[in-house]
Amino acid sequence: MASVYDLKPRFVALLRPLAAKLAGLGVTANAVTLAAMIGSIAVGILLAWWPTCLELWLVLPVFLFLRMAANAIDGILAREHGMKSRLGAILNEVGDVVSDTALTLPVLLLPGVTGFWVIMAIVIAIIGELVGVLGQVVGSTRRYDGPMGKSDRALALGLLGLMLGAGFGLGSWIDWEMIIVAGLGLVTIFNRARKALAETPK
């Protein structure tokens, strides 16, 4: 199924010159990964501290775009500038899960939101990333199949922040967005598991 992840090659091409400049300045892939994770935690704390200041949620789509750029840059640095490492692989996977969780948890604090669906969206997202990594364990590749991968969740969460900040206000639409994210997350888990097994030599 189609995913925002399919657009990554074009995004990476645009960021390649910036990554080269950062490499020249001595910036490492792991430093970029850690910066993105720490930034996500900071933004999550900010939104959790003032969840009812809806204009503040406009920070979310802006930061998510920057985080996506950081994720692409750390990959370029690792692959094309000789910075690939086992520590980097761990930081990349853990950082994504920590960042997603930190940025989604503040939605729980919005008045009228059903916490169950927010928690389900987070848990299913974590399981989806776990299944993606398990592809390597069973002899396949790391699976990034959609329709609700990391980039798709960022798009959905950024849209939520944009709508809140733009004055759409609170309402049941937030629950429905979380339900859709969770539902498509389950499809993602199935797709990743199925394709990992199909790719694995018998």
UniProtKB/TrEMBL annotation:
It holds the Pfam family CDP-OH_P_transf. GO terms for molecular function: transferase activity. Gene3D superfamilies: 1.20.120.1760. Keywords: Membrane, Transferase, Transmembrane, Transmembrane helix. It is an enzyme of class 2 (transferase). This is CDP-alcohol phosphatidyltransferase family protein. Its EC number is 2.7.8.-. The keyword Transmembrane applies. The chain crosses the membrane at residues 22-50, 56-77, 115-134, 154-170.
